[in-house]
Amino acid sequence: MVFVAPGAEVSPAASVGEGTKVWHLAQVREEARIGSDCIIGRGAYIGTGVVMGDHCKVQNAALVYEPARLGHGVFVGPAVVFTNDTYPRAVNPDGSLKSASDWEPVGVTVDDGASIGARAVCVAPVRIGRWATVAAGAVVTKDVPDYALVAGVPARRVGWVGPAGVPLTEADGVWTCPATGRRFEQDGETLRELDA
Fold this sequence. Notes:
By secondary structure, the chain is mostly beta strands.
């Protein structure tokens, strides 16, 4: 069963999976496809045609503009913004108001298990890799590798994280998750799990 709180707005043309909860003042637009067992927080906005996998959490006041694509188990923190216009302008060079046909939306892609911290801004087009973590307040302007921990303005890799979200520790060229014991090997700016 889908739960839609009083005051939330879910378009009849949207698809919302079983067990998903849409909280007060949230808006889910036309053609959005939301997976099962997701949480859309108070005042969050899910744009037209956005696709979200199962078990995602979009926290209060997050703005997920189309054509964003979120994998399974993605966390989007409070007040996060996913942009969709490379060259934003309200008007054309002749002064006329821009319409939908005057620009081409570009999206943010977030792969399975990744987390975007509170008030981060992801400037499309960018891809956030699997299990990556974007720190609160970061501004992401380029792709983030799988397992990367990025922070700052603009965001830069400051470490690695595993699926548990805990920063990995390095010894003798092997990165280990202190929470799970899973081991990883770094090759340049990529990380791969050992024994996977």
